[in-house]
Write a structure and sequence with these properties.
The complex is a heterodimer of chains A (283) and B (387).
Chain A (H helix, E strand, L loop, with lengths): L39 H17 L6 E11 L5 E11 L6 E11 L7 E7 L5 E6 L4 E5 L15 H5 L6 E11 L2 E10 L8 E7 L5 E7 L5 E13 L3 E11 L5 E11 L19
Antiparallel strand pairs in A: 1-2, 1-13, 2-3, 3-4, 4-5, 5-6, 7-8, 8-9, 9-10, 10-11, 11-12, 12-13
Chain B lengths: L2 E3 L5 E15 L13 E14 L3 E10 L9 E13 L2 E8 L32 E10 L2 E9 L23 E2 L8 E11 L2 E11 L4 E5 L2 E6 L1 E13 L2 E12 L6 E16 L2 E12 L13 E9 L7 E9 L2 E16 L2 E10 L21 E9 L1
Parallel strand pairs in B: 9-13
Antiparallel strand pairs in B: 1-2, 2-3, 2-22, 3-4, 4-5, 5-6, 6-7, 7-8, 8-10, 10-11, 11-14, 12-13, 14-15, 15-16, 16-17, 17-18, 18-19, 19-20, 20-21, 21-22
The chains are: A mainly beta (283), B mainly beta (387).
Chain lengths: 283, 387
């Protein structure tokens, strides 16, 4: 299978909107492995199968929209909250990932600022910014993806995409995660300018949802942990985490995303998510 | 206060901003009846009102500037007032709107739809709203915009010579035989991107937005003429580097009104340059053979080198510093700075300024014998409070 064939947007904030997993409803769909000694190739294949399963569980969502309250906590517990509207349109192109649009709604001094991300496979994402203060749409170098998103513990890389074709996989182990049994899979980025050397993802083996992600910096130090919780199911199929908490162990800071007003299949089109429309979007 | 309420239509949004602006000058300009170190202060109220539904938006933006002896423009004026609606396969904009063409940081040669609002300050990037009917046709990774423009908004001038504009220009425009204020202008822009490449072709036929300043009966008056402009924008992304080109060819209806120009630019991104901040190194070179009879400083054969810091803070703050010099004269140069900084959830500080790095600065070298030709050093501060 070519790398771009299986794609999935699990970007950090995008996780809330896309690709949270569905229940494996047939025995043939489920993945089973034993703790018996697996070869390195087997572990790689197994890890990728979990990611693919997770992707397949979300296929056909079409488009979605939700509101996000992003609360930043500093080391001393002080907090500030901003509100965004996030939209995602599922890609109809196998060689590309989904398109994500973030629009700031509050506070007032960043209102209507927009970030548009076209997810790519094994290439840097295409990123455009629209800042109302300069009324211009500006292309951003893909190398900027590692930067912090609006002062939070999330990076643009987290927001954009985590396409299945963008990683090498290694199944590490199975273990209990809360009330579920999880498979822990190491993912190593294949795209340029990632801020991470690897990430470890906990997949819930019942619904193929992501429950936790640990991020390792370029030196291999575990420095961030994302916890996804309060899952709700939509359209009898698509699971979404209502709460996502990113903790930065190096700084002691924390960012919490709370999703609300989650809607699917609103009739948004891929052409609505083009840079030429950033200034004049009516949605 | 920013409020958003749900009605039969989806949303009505208000964004009300109150601001105080000040230009502070640090040197003496002898010929002007102004103090050595002058400071202009003005207050304004900016209201943006939007009616939204899934497919359309009405934008009503106005600005009220407090009465002040030192400001030329006072009272109320429209920032924007337009209706935008989407149909299947195209969208329509009707009303007074602003359009921005171009990809360079410091000068946009191709930008022609709106007249620059020089009353907003030195080297302003603000514009006067333009009456237009625009049809936008998106198609995958391309976009075609077609414009029908109701004449050109005449440039506005200060009533007397100021530091911003050393020439005293009568606000009585003159038009060439081929054009008039009431003529309709036509414009088009086709934009296309493919992964790492963006390209745009632009056409404009109508009244120039940058008049020549001619002498008529011992007065300086702005002179408008018909132009046909072809423009090109090219942007290529190579990992950390952005390469940019803007080029323009203009044919005027007079013998000396033709010109060509180009701007070359490169940006190099350094992630996490300092803590969370990213630094983008910027270099731009501007060249044109335009006959400079405008009152404003030209940017011909200039190089700008600088850096743009994106703080990646909660307020999306940015700050840019640069040094500008003539390509073949490194002894004369000036510094520029520009910042857009969030201080609080409702407060932003905008700052810009120019400081001479040498006794004379490039913009005035060719006019050293002119007593008006002196460096202009200033800093502009605007504090904006969003309700």
């Amino acid at each position: 299978m070519k790398p771009g064939k299986v794609t999935n947007t699990i970007g950090v904030i995008a996780i809330a909107l896309c690709c949270a997993g569905v229940q494996a409803n047939t025995a043939s769909n489920s993945i089973s492995e034993t703790a018996q000694a697996l070869s390195e190739a087997d572990k790689a294949d197994l890890g990728k199968r979990y990611a693919q399963k997770w992707k397949q569980s979300d296929e056909g969502f079409g488009d979605s929209s939700n509101k996000i309250a992003m609360t930043l906590f500093d080391k001393g517990g002080n907090q500030s909250t901003r509100f965004m509207r996030m939209g995602v349109v599922e890609s109809t192109n196998d060689e590309r990932g989904d398109k994500v649009l973030l629009t700031f709604e509050a506070p007032a001094n960043v209102k209507d600022s927009r970030v548009l991300i076209h997810s790519m496979i094994r290439e840097g994402d295409l990123v455009w910014l629209y800042l109302p203060s300069i009324k211009r749409v500006k292309r951003v170098s893909s190398a900027d993806r590692a930067g912090s998103f609006s002062g939070s513990e999330f990076s643009y890389e987290d927001i954009g995409s985590m396409e299945v074709g963008n990683y090498e996989y290694v199944w590490l182990r199975d273990e209990t995660c809360g009330d579920f049994e999880c498979a822990v899979v190491k993912q190593i980025p294949l795209y340029p300018y990632s801020g991470y050397s690897s990430i470890d993802v906990w997949f819930d083996k019942t619904h193929y949802r992501q429950m936790k992600i640990q991020f390792y910096d370029r030196k291999g130090t575990h420095f961030k942990t994302l916890t996804l919780s309060d899952y709700e199911q939509f359209l009898d199929r698509y699971w979404r985490p209502i709460t996502m908490t990113m903790e930065n162990h190096a700084t002691g800071k924390k960012t919490v995303l709370k999703s609300s007003e989650i809607e699917f299949q609103l009739g948004q089109r891929e052409t609505d998510y083009e840079p030429g429309k950033l200034k004049n979007l009516t949605q | 206060m920013t409020t958003s309420r749900t009605y039969g239509i989806d949303d009505i949004n208000y964004l009300v901003k109150a601001g105080a602006e000040s230009h502070v000058f640090f040197n003496h300009v002898g010929y002007l009846q102004e103090p050595s170190n002058a400071a202009y202060l003005s207050a304004s109220m900016d209201i943006n009102f939007e009616v939204l539904d899934r497919r359309s938006r009405i934008v009503i933006g106005g600005k009220q500037i407090a009465e002040d002896d030192t400001t030329v423009r006072s009272g109320f004026y429209w920032n924007e007032f337009y209706w935008l609606t989407e149909f299947d396969g195209f969208d329509v904009t009707l009303g007074k709107a602003k359009q921005y063409w171009g990809i360079m940081e410091t000068r946009n040669l191709v930008d022609v739809i709106n007249t620059t609002d020089y009353l907003q300050g030195y080297n302003s990037t603000e514009k006067l709203a333009q009456n237009m009917f625009k049809v936008g046709i998106p198609s995958g990774s391309s976009q075609l915009d077609l414009y029908l423009l109701e004449g050109g908004e005449p440039r506005q001038f200060y009533e007397q010579a100021t530091r911003f504009e050393p020439l005293e220009v009568a606000d009585t425009p003159r038009y060439s035989a081929q054009t008039s204020h009431s003529d309709m202008d036509l414009a088009a822009r086709y934009w296309y991107y493919d992964d790492n490449l963006e390209i745009a072709f632009t056409l404009f036929k109508g009244t120039t937005r940058t008049p020549l300043i001619i002498e008529e009966e011992s007065r300086n008056v702005p002179y408008y003429y018909e132009i046909f402009q072809q423009g090109l924008e090219l942007l290529f992304v190579d990992d950390r580097t952005l390469y940019k080109l803007e080029a323009v060819s203009v044919k005027g209806d007079g013998d000396d009104d033709d010109f060509v120009g180009a701007s070359l630019g490169v940006e190099y991104a350094i992630s996490r340059f300092f803590r969370k901040s990213d630094l983008t190194l910027v270099g731009e070179y501007h060249l044109d053979d335009k006959d400079e009879r405008s009152a404003m400083v030209s940017f011909d054969d200039y190089v700008m080198l600088g850096g743009l810091m994106s703080f990646n803070d909660v307020y999306l703050s940015t700050f840019r510093v640069g040094v500008t010099f003539l390509r073949d004269d490194l002894d004369h140069y000036f510094y520029t700075l520009e910042g857009d900084i969030g201080l609080h959830e409702k407060v932003r500080l905008k700052v810009s300024g120019t400081f001479a790095g040498s006794e004379t600065i490039p913009a005035y070298i060719e006019n050293e014998d002119n007593p008006k030709a002196q460096p202009l050093e200033f800093i502009y501060l605007a504090l904006e409070y969003a309700f």
